[in-house]
Design goal:
The protein is of the alpha+beta class. It has 1 helix and 2 strands, in the order αββ. It has one domain.
């Protein structure tokens, strides 16, 4: 046995027909971007909290590891990435 992190997985399974359709659309957009027809940007968002999430830790018997935390507002960030290297 080993002590490992618990991983989260997406809920459910994507519809294979819809997934393949979206994948084909993305591939077409990437081709258009390579040809200079469009500017393609990938977008993602993430959020941060002051309250830590520690899913596991090794501890000595009789010892408790504690992490101080304070509640606060969530900080959301947005990111855009262009695969074109002309910037």
């Amino acid at each position: 046995m080993s002590w490992r992190r618990i991983r989260k997985k997406p809920k459910g399974v994507p519809d294979p027909v819809e997934y393949s359709k979206k994948k084909a659309e993305l591939e077409e957009l990437e081709i258009q971007a390579e040809q200079g027809i469009i500017d393609l940007y990938h977008f993602d968002e993430s959020g941060f909290f002051l309250e830590p999430y520690v899913p596991y830790a090794r501890q000595e018997k009789g010892e408790t590891i504690e992490v101080e935390s304070s509640r606060g507002q969530r900080l959301s960030v947005l990111g855009f990435l262009s695969l074109q290297r002309d910037w």
